[in-house]
Design a protein that fits this description.
It comes from Tetrapisispora phaffii (strain ATCC 24235 / CBS 4417 / NBRC 1672 / NRRL Y-8282 / UCD 70-5) (Yeast). Keywords: Coiled coil, Nucleus. Its main location: nucleus. The protein is α+β, with helices and mostly antiparallel strands. Among the domains are: 70 residues, no CATH class; 186 residues, no CATH class; 91 residues; 107 residues, no CATH class. The protein is built from 40 helices and 29 strands. It has a 6-stranded antiparallel β-sheet with strand order 18-17-29-25-24-23. A 5-stranded mixed β-sheet has the order 5-1-2-15-16, covered by helices on one side. The radius of gyration is 44 Å and the shape is elongated.
C-alpha cells in the first residue's frame, strides 16, 4: 500500500455516473479514476506527481505516487516469484507476536534462524568443493542477492542438479546427565530426491540422499535479507497502537498460515482492550460499531485533500497475494504427488566408500599429513627478563605476565590520542621496563683471564682484566719465593666472591662468540656489572624510564579531570567519605609492615601476657593507619586533589597510583597487586621530604618486572572497563570507520561501472582494429586516434579509482580499533596475532611500479613500525580436549612434568614420543620402538598419526605449545611465508586463517622490513662491525699466550739445575763406555751401541754449554727486556679486549636505551606545552579535537585522486 506522510492511502469512491454516458472523460489508468473536467484531472495528476509518497514494502521515499505504486507491484511480484513457498508458513509462525520490536533486528533474527534450516518441499542444491576461501559449513552465510549477478547465478544453478527435500529428521543434543555438558550439539538430517521434470521418468533413475544442513543450500536469490524484509512488510502489522506493541500477521494471512489470533500471556500488557485486537478478529459482529477502530489512512477526495471514513480497494494486493499463495500450494501438491511415485531407496551417506560430497572443507585433522613446517624450528620467546631467546633447553622460563604486557602496550598505543601520548614501538616499551632495573642500567662486563699451569699441574687463573695485580720483578734473581708470591691466583672455573656470573641470554651471537674464545690458555667470563647507584636511578630523563612514567601518568589523568571531578565511573563501595574507614576496610587483609627493630621487639616479647600482645596489635594497626595517611596526604594534600592538580613531577605520581590502587583493592583482581605494591614499595621509615624519592627507588629495586607489569595492567583494566572517555573514543571510531566504509562502497560502485565501460571500449577498439586490419574500416585517422584517446582516458580513470579504493581500504585498516588483532588459528588450535593496523600510527609506503617513489600513508613520523612480529599463542585446555582429543589428566600431567623436567621430557612421559639424535621420531612402548618419522622427514605409511602425534612431530617436543599462557613469536618474514605455505585451504580453521592473512601479507612484509632496516638496527649493525674489526686487531699471539708457561719452565730450570755436575759425570761415563766398546770386535750390534752413545755425548755437551751461557748477565738482561715488552703488550690487548667485548655484549641494549631516552611525548608537548610527567595541564588555547566529520574531510582531502570522492562526508 502506497504511503503518504507514513500513512496508508485509500482512493475515494468513484462519483455517480453522469446522465449522458457518451460524454468524454479524462482517465487515470493506475487508479481507475475518471474526471469530467480537465482542470480536476490536472490537479489530481499534479498531486500524484509530487515526491511525497513512499513504498511500504521497500521503504523508499521521495517518490511520486506512480513510482511508489510501481515499486510495490514490482517487489510484490518479486517476493511471490522468488521467496520459497514452503518457507513462508514457518517464518510467519516465527514472526507472529514476536517480542523483537525493531524491523531490522527481526529480519536479522529470521535470517539467522532459517538460513541453515530447511523444510520438506523446498528446492535445494548440494554444495561442491570451493577453491576459494569460503567455508562450506552450515554456519556460512547465504550470498546476498545482487541484480548485476543474478543472471550469472541463475545460469550456474541451471547447470547443477536440483533436489527436493522429501523428509526432515531432527536429533536432539547429547547432554552429559551428570555435568550437563553438551557432548554433541543438535543437528538435522534431510532426505533429498532429485527433482524430475518429466513425470514419466523411470523409477530407477531417481536417486535419494541423506544430508545435513552443512551440505545443502538454497538458491542464491531465494533467501536474502531483502526478500525477508519485503515478506515482513507485506504480512506484518503492529498488534496495537500502544508503545512497544509487537508485530503480528495481518488478518488476511491468519487462515492461510494456520495461525491463532489469541494473544500470548506475556504480551497482554500491549493489548488495547477486551474488545480490540484478538477478539475483534473472530467476533467482529459482536463488537459495537462505535468501538470498532479503523486503521488510520489517508483518503484523497476529488480536490486532492485528505479525508477519512471512506472505504477503498486497499485489499487488492492482499487478495492477489492470497491467490498466488494458493496457486503455489497447488503446484507444490502436484510435485509432492509426483514424488510419492518414486521408489524409495536406502538412504546412505557413503556409496562405494566415497561420500556424495567429497571436496568440501573438512576438519583439519581429516586432511593427510604432509611434512614438517619450517617455521616452528625458528620460533622465539620472551624469557623472564623480557629478552628474545631461542634457548628451549630444560628449565627455560617465559615471561609470566606477557599477556598483560601486550594488553597494556596495545591499549596505550590504540587510545594514544585520548591519553595524550605519542606512539612507541614494542622494543621501546620493553626497554623502558628494563630501565627500571638497576642491574639493567649497567649491563654486563667481560673479564679476560690468562690461565697458567702451576707446579702441581693444577690450572690457575691470572686475573689480568679483573683488578690490579703485582707485576713480576724481573730485576731480581728468580727463586722459589718469587714463584709462590708472584701474583694472585684462583682455581679455574672459579670467580671472585663478589662477582656474579651473568645468566642473561641476550645478544646470543656475541655471547656465543665470547664463550667460544675460551681455551686452555685464556678464559673469557661474562658477569653482571655492579648495579646502578641511586643517583642514576633518580635521573629519569637520562635513564630511559621517562616513557614508562608517561604511560602511568597518562592513564592516571583519566581518573580525575583538572576540575576535581571523577571521570571514572567506579563502584559505590570503592569510595568512602571517611578516609579512616577506608583505611580500616582496606587494611583488614593487609600484612603489617615492620622494621627490623619491631620484629626484634616482638621476638623478645613472645613470652609476655596475652593482654600485652593485644595492645601491641592495636598499636601496630594504628601506626600502620597513620603511615598510610602520611603517604596519601603527603604535605597535607590529599592524593586525589594532587591528581586533579596534575602534580606528577619528582615521583609524586606514585602517590596517586597508590591512592587509585587502594580504592580498587576491594576488587579481587587488584587486591593482591595492591597488597604487594604496598608491602614492597612503601618505605617503613622516612622523612617527609624523602618519601617520593624512596617510593621511586623501591619501585625500581624491590619490584620484579612481572610486578611492574601488574601495576600498569591494573590501571589499564580499570580504565578500559569504566572510563567514559574510552567508551566515547570507541563509539567515535566506529562512526568514523562506518563513514570510510561508505566512501569505499561508493568508490567501488563507481569503479565497477567504469570497468564495465572500459570493457565495452576495449571490445569496440578490437572491432575497429580488425576492420582496419581487413581494410574494411570507413573511419578517418582522426576518428581512430579519438577512439584510442578515449580508451587511454578510461584506463587512467579506472587506475585512479583503483588507487582511491586501495587508499580507503588502508585507512580503514589503520583506523579500526581492535585490541590484539586475531589473525586466525592453525590445525593445532594455536592462535596467531599481529599488532599492527588497528588504530595505531603505522608509516607505510607503497612503491610505484616505475620507480622508488614513496607515498606516505600516515603523518606520524615518530614510529615507523609498531611491533614487526607475529605472535603465536598456545591452545586452551578446552581446545586441547575438543580438537586434539586429550584428557584432563594428560594435560595436567604434561604441565606438571614440563614445569620440572622440561617440555621434551614431559612429552615423552605422557605421550611416549621422543626425538632421537638423528632427528627421527619414535614411539616407545616398553622395549618396543616404533619409528613415526624417519630422519629424512618421511612419515611411516603403516601408522596413522593422531592429532597430538602430528602436533609433536610438527612443533618438536622442545617447543610444544600446550597452554594459552605460552607466547612465541615469528621474527623473520621467511618464516611468515613458510607459515602461509603450510596452511591448507581445505581445513576449516586454516581456511579462515588464510582468508584473513593473505590480504594483510603485503602490510606484514612491510612492517617486518621496516623493523629490520630501522635506524636503530642499522646503527647497531654498523657499530658492531667496527668493534669486531678492532677486536680482531687485538687478538693475543702465541708468544703472548705462552709467556707465563715458558717463564715458569725457565724459572724451574734455573732453580733446580744451576750446576752441571750431573751432566759432566754422566758425560764421563759415556766417554768411558765408548772407549771400552772401541776396543772390542766391531760387530753390528757394537757399532749401533757406539752410535747411540755418541748422540748422547753430543746432547750432554750441548746442555752443559747452554747452561753455562744462560748464567751470563748479558743474556739474562736481554730475556727480561723481551718478557717485559711481551707482558706489556699482552696486558694492553687484554684490557682492550675486555672493553671491546663489554661494548659488544651491551651494544644492542645500550642503543635501545639511547633510543628510549630520545623518545619525547610530542603529542603532549603539542597540546599541553610539556610532557605529562612535568605537572602539565591541558592548554585551553590549543585547538579542540577534530570531530568525526572533520577527520573524514581531512582523510578525503588526502586521497591520491579525490575527483571521484565527495569531500563532504556522507551522513550515516
Amino acid at each position: 500500500m502506497v504511503l503518504c506522510k507514513r500513512k496508508s492511502i485509500s482512493l475515494p469512491n468513484p462519483p455517480p455516473l453522469p446522465s449522458n454516458l457518451d460524454v468524454n472523460v479524462w482517465h487515470i489508468p493506475e487508479t481507475g479514476e475518471w474526471f469530467l473536467k480537465y482542470k480536476d484531472y490536472l490537479e489530481r495528476m499534479y498531486f500524484y506527481s509530487k515526491h511525497n509518497f513512499s513504498c511500504e514494502i521497500t521503504g523508499a521515499s521521495c517518490l511520486t505516487f506512480f513510482e511508489a505504486l510501481d515499486s510495490e507491484e514490482t517487489e510484490f511480484k518479486y517476493v511471490e516469484e522468488k521467496f520459497p513457498i514452503k518457507l513462508r508458513e514457518p517464518i510467519a509462525k516465527f514472526l507472529h507476536f514476536n517480542p523483537i520490536k525493531r524491523m531490522d533486528s527481526l529480519v536479522e533474527a529470521v535470517y539467522a534462524k532459517f538460513k541453515s534450516d530447511f523444510f520438506p518441499g523446498e528446492i535445494v542444491y548440494l554444495r561442491k568443493h570451493r577453491t576459494t576461501g569460503a567455508s562450506s559449513t552450515g554456519s556460512s552465510s547465504t550470498p546476498q542477492y545482487d541484480d548485476t549477478t543474478s543472471e550469472q547465478n541463475q545460469q550456474q544453478l541451471n547447470n547443477q542438479k536440483v533436489y527436493i527435500i522429501k523428509e526432515k529428521a531432527e536429533f536432539n543434543a547429547t547432554v552429559d546427565p551428570r555435568t550437563s555438558v553438551v557432548l554433541s550439539p543438535a543437528y538435522t538430517k534431510y532426505m533429498l530426491v532429485e527433482y524430475v521434470h518429466n513425470l514419466y521418468d523411470s523409477q530407477h533413475n531417481v536417486h535419494s540422499f541423506i544430508a545435513d544442513q552443512s551440505q545443502i543450500y538454497r538458491g542464491r536469490t531465494t533467501f536474502t535479507k531483502h526478500l525477508i524484509k519485503c515478506f515482513c512488510k507485506i504480512t506484518l502489522v503492529r498488534a496495537s497502537t500502544k508503545m512497544g506493541a509487537p508485530w503480528c500477521v495481518k488478518d488476511e494471512y491468519i487462515p492461510i498460515y494456520g495461525l491463532s489470533t489469541e494473544w500470548p500471556q506475556n504480551m497482554l500488557i500491549y493489548k488495547e482492550g477486551p474488545d480490540v485486537m484478538g477478539k475483534k478478529r473472530s467476533h467482529d459482529d459482536q463488537v459495537p460499531e462505535e468501538n470498532k477502530k479503523e486503521p488510520e489512512v489517508i483518503i484523497i477526495d476529488d480536490d486532492g485533500e485528505d479525508l477519512t471514513g471512506i472505504d477503498g480497494n486497499q485489499h487488492q494486493n492482499i487478495k492477489t497475494d492470497k491467490q498466488l499463495t494458493v496457486e503455489g500450494d497447488n503446484q507444490n501438491k502436484n510435485k509432492k504427488k509426483r514424488k510419492t511415485d518414486f521408489v524409495e531407496q536406502e538412504t546412505v551417506i557413503k556409496q562405494n566408500g566415497v561420500t556424495p560430497i567429497s571436496n568440501t572443507i573438512v576438519n583439519d585433522f581429516e586432511l593427510p599429513y604432509t611434512s614438517i613446517p619450517g617455521f616452528f624450528k625458528n620460533l622465539m620467546y620472551y624469557n623472564e627478563n623480557l629478552e628474545l631467546s631461542t634457548d628451549f633447553s630444560i628449565g627455560f622460563k617465559e615471561f609470566k605476565n606477557f599477556e598483560k604486557f601486550l594488553i597494556a602496550f596495545q591499549f596505550i598505543n590504540t587510545f594514544n590520542d585520548k591519553l595524550l601520548i605519542t606512539n612507541f614501538s614494542f622494543e621501546q616499551f620493553i626497554t623502558t621496563f628494563k630501565c627500571t632495573d638497576s642491574q639493567e642500567l649497567k649491563g654486563e662486563a667481560v673479564f679476560v683471564d690468562i690461565i697458567e699451569k702451576s707446579n702441581d699441574d693444577h690450572l690457575k687463573i691470572i686475573p689480568n682484566s679483573r683488578k690490579d695485580k703485582n707485576e713480576l720483578n724481573d730485576e731480581k734473581q728468580f727463586s722459589e719465593s718469587d714463584i709462590n708470591d708472584s701474583s694472585e691466583e684462583v682455581e679455574i672455573n672459579q670467580v671472585d666472591d663478589d662477582t656474579e656470573v651473568s645468566d642473561w641470554k641476550r645478544n646470543a651471537t656475541i655471547r656465543n662468540l665470547i664463550n667460544e674464545k675460551t681455551t686452555d690458555k685464556v678464559k673469557y667470563t661474562i658477569v653482571k656489572d655492579n648495579p646502578a647507584s641511586d643517583d642514576i636511578i633518580d635521573k629519569v630523563n637520562n635513564n630511559g624510564t621517562a616513557l614508562l612514567i608517561e604511560c602511568f601518568v597518562a592513564i592516571l589523568r583519566l581518573f580525575i579531570d583538572e576540575n576535581g571531578d571523577w571521570k571514572i565511573i567506579v563502584l559505590e563501595e570503592w569510595i568512602e567519605d571517611n578516609s579512616n574507614s577506608t583505611v580500616m576496610q582496606t587494611d583488614e587483609h593487609n600484612l603489617e609492615t615492620k622494621t627490623d627493630v619491631q620484629k626484634l621487639k616482638e621476638e623478645e616479647g613472645e613470652d609476655g601476657d596475652e593482654d600485652g600482645d593485644e595492645d601491641g596489635d592495636e598499636d601496630e594497626d594504628n601506626d600502620e593507619g597513620s603511615t598510610l595517611d602520611k603517604f596519601l596526604n603527603y604535605r597535607n594534600l590529599n592524593w586525589a586533589e594532587r591528581l586533579s592538580k596534575r602534580q606528577f613531577n619528582n615521583h609524586l605520581w606514585l602517590l596517586s597510583l597508590f591512592g587509585i590502587l587502594q580504592d580498587s583493592s576491594n576488587i579481587p583482581a587488584y587486591k593482591d597487586i595492591y597488597q604487594n605494591f604496598k608491602d614492597k614499595v612503601l618505605p617503613t621509615e622516612a622523612s617527609s621530604t624523602q618519601i617520593p624519592k624512596l617510593l621511586w627507588r623501591n619501585f625500581c629495586t624491590k619490584l620484579t618486572m612481572d610486578e611492574k607489569v601488574d601495576l600498569l595492567w591494573a590501571l589499564v583494566d580499570i580504565v578500559s572497563n569504566f572510563s567514559p572517555d574510552i567508551k566515547h573514543a570507541i563509539e567515535e571510531n566506529m562512526e568514523f570507520c562506518n563513514h570510510i566504509r561508505s566512501e569505499k562502497f561508493k568508490v567501488s560502485r563507481e569503479l565497477k561501472s567504469e570497468q564495465h565501460n572500459l570493457l565495452v571500449l576495449q571490445n569496440q577498439m578490437n572491432v575497429i582494429s580488425e576492420k582496419i586490419a581487413n581494410n574494411e574500416s570507413n573511419l578517418k585517422e582522426e576518428e581512430t586516434i579519438s577512439w584510442e584517446n578515449k580508451l587511454l582516458d578510461q584506463i587512467k580513470l579506472v587506475d585512479l579509482l583503483s588507487e582511491n579504493k586501495l587508499y580507503l581500504e588502508k585507512q580503514l585498516l589503520f583506523n579500526d580499533y581492535q585490541r590484539l588483532r586475531f589473525l586466525g588459528s592453525d590445525r593445532y588450535c594455536n592462535s596467531y596475532y599481529w599488532l599492527e593496523l588497528n588504530g595505531i600510527a603505522f608509516n607505510t609506503t607503497s612503491k610505484a611500479e616505475d620507480g622508488d617513489k614513496n607515498v606516505t600513508i600516515t603523518e606520524n613520523e615518530s614510529t615507523t613500525y609498531h611491533c614487526g612480529k607475529i605472535l603465536v599463542r598456545g591452545p586452551s585446555d578446552d581446545e586441547l580436549q575438543l580438537c586434539l582429543g586429550l584428557t584432563v589428566s594428560e594435560i595436567e600431567r604434561w604441565n606438571s612434568h614440563a614445569l620440572s623436567l622440561g617440555s621434551a621430557a614431559a612429552t615423552f612421559e605422557v605421550f611416549k614420543i621422543r626425538k632421537e639424535s638423528d632427528n627421527r621420531y619414535v614411539h616407545v612402548d616398553g622395549d618396543t620402538k616404533t619409528e613415526i618419522l624417519s630422519k629424512e622427514g618421511v612419515v611411516n605409511d603403516l601408522i596413522e598419526l593422531n592429532p597430538i602425534q602430528r602436533k609433536i612431530v610438527d612443533e618438536s617436543p622442545e617447543k610444544m605449545l600446550m597452554h594459552e599462557s605460552q607466547w612465541y613469536c615469528i621474527d623473520k618474514i621467511e618464516d611468515v611465508h613458510s607459515l602461509v605455505n603450510w596452511l591448507d585451504i581445505r581445513g576449516h580453521n586454516e581456511n579462515n586463517f588464510l582468508n584473513v592473512i593473505k590480504p594483510l601479507l603485503p602490510f606484514i612484509e612491510e612492517s617486518f622490513e621496516m623493523r629490520e632496516h630501522s635506524s636503530l638496527a642499522t646503527i647497531v649493525k654498523s657499530e658492531e662491525e667496527q668493534l669486531l674489526s678492532q677486536l680482531q686487531a687485538n687478538e693475543l699471539s702465541e708468544e703472548e699466550l705462552n709467556l707465563d708457561f715458558e717463564l715458569n719452565l725457565e724459572i724451574n730450570g734455573d732453580i733446580q739445575n744451576n750446576d752441571t755436575t750431573a751432566e759432566e759425570n754422566e758425560l764421563d761415563k759415556v766417554v768411558d763406555t765408548i772407549l771400552t766398546l772401541e776396543d772390542k770386535v766391531k760387530t753390528e750390534k757394537v757399532l749401533e751401541e757406539i752410535a747411540q752413545l755418541e748422540n748422547r755425548k753430543d746432547s750432554l755437551m750441548k746442555s752443559i754449554q747452554n747452561k753455562s751461557n744462560a748464567l751470563t748477565p748479558g743474556i739474562r738482561t736481554h730475556k727480561r727486556a723481551d718478557r717485559k715488552r711481551i707482558r706489556a703488550s699482552r696486558a694492553t690487548k687484554i684490557k682492550k679486549q675486555s672493553e671491546l667485548l663489554t661494548d659488544l655484549i651491551n651494544l644492542p641494549h645500550f642503543k635501545a636505551m639511547e633510543d628510549v631516552i630520545k623518545w619525547k611525548n610530542s603529542l603532549a608537548i603539542k597540546k599541553c606545552g610539556a610532557q605529562l610527567r612535568k605537572n602539565t595541564t591541558f592548554n585551553k588555547s590549543t585547538e579542540a579535537e577534530d570531530t568525526v566529520a572533520q577527520r573524514l574531510q581531512k582523510l578525503l582531502m588526502n586521497v591520491p585522486n579525490n575527483s571521484s570522492i565527495s569531500i563532504e562526508p556522507s551522513t550515516a
